[in-house]
Amino acid sequence: MSFSKTVTYFIFIKSTQIISLMAVKKGLFKTSVGRKNLMAFTGLFIIFFLIIHLIGNLILIIPDSYFPIEFWSNVANGHDMYNAYSHFLVHFWPVTIVAYILYVAIITHIIDALLITLQNKKSQGEKYIVTDNSTSSWYSRNMGILGTVIGVFLVIHMAQFWLQYKVLKVEHDLYELVLATLKIWWFVLVYEIGIIALGFHLVHGIESAHRSLGIYPKKIMNTIKYIALCFSLVMAILYAIIPIILYFK
Question: What's the predicted TM-score (pTM) here?
Answer without folding.
Answer: 0.79
